[in-house]
Amino acid sequence: MSRRNKISLLLMVAIGLLISWYAVRDIKFSVLINDLSSVNLGWLIVALGCILLYFFFESVVTYILVKSSTPAFSFRDAIRVPLVEQLFNGITPFSSGGQPAQLVVLLQAGVDGGKASSALLMKFVIYQAMIVLNFVVSLIIGFRYLVDTVHSLAIFVVFGFLIHLVVIVALLMVMYWYSMTKKLVNGCFKVVGWFVNENKYQRWKRTLNQKIDNFHDESIRIGHEGKLMVKVCILTFLQLFFYYLIPYFVMLSLGYHNANVVMVTSLDVLIFLVISMFPIPGGAGGAEYSFEKLFRSYIHSSSKLALAMILWRLLTYYLGLFLGLIALMIKPRRVHLQNNEAEKMEE
User: Fold this and answer.
1) So where does this one cross the membrane (predicted)?
2) Which of 200, 231, 316, 341 gives a 20 to 30 Å CA spacing to 186?
């Protein structure tokens, strides 16, 4: 990790501690300790199992996609990919560091840069598609509740959905309307030439076109493998399904057994969309605010609501940072850096 990334990590931990303190500042310490001691560890372990399954299924998806073009790729190295992704997603604005970090991990494992980029983009397309699918279902179930409860969050949810929809449409255009999309992208990219010198503009343009070509070729190859695509879509759906279940099991651990699993899961899908709208790494502030507002009608005790929010964030955000640090320290079985991309990540 670079010095800047280390500072960002420490800053996010500090912000997390500050938000947790703010959430419990008006709660008596004895009440908080009593609620904490009454937590059902069994249900909390189930919640922990859900986030671990989330990481596991993403590892399997990565393994399947990369191994289809790189047979020597090992599952051990595939496990590192989502964990390092969680770390860099969590310390960069709009989770922008996750994709480059995954690429570096794959390069370190000896995967060709073009094939690695294509596999990651394909994984990203399927992931976005499953998010959109889950959102549509959740919108039908929980949007009315969201509008009635917190009007401002409804706006963020809609914008978050539009962002995910635009991204997946753009990537699908590369897959199925290649020539037109390439002309459109190159036409829009001319604007960049107004702000940089000619050499840099041409270099960036070549890189962009190469990535478009690689993604298109790889998407065509994988798209013809129907069984593989169906398998990856199912695994990605399961990956997100277990992630969205976490708040429900956290509520069960706090004694709220009458919670509607369908509604709670749907609300977590909507929170996921809200988090994507906040530029602060990890959606810090926005995630906690959304959780508190949406689950306040379910959890009436202020101390248990604050405790539920903290437990949820520990599982869905801070655990990923911790496991990502461990994964970052584990060396791949065969190191093979290409195009100096891994060195650039360290700068």
Assistant:
1) 41-66, 124-147, 153-178, 228-250, 262-284, 305-330
2) 341
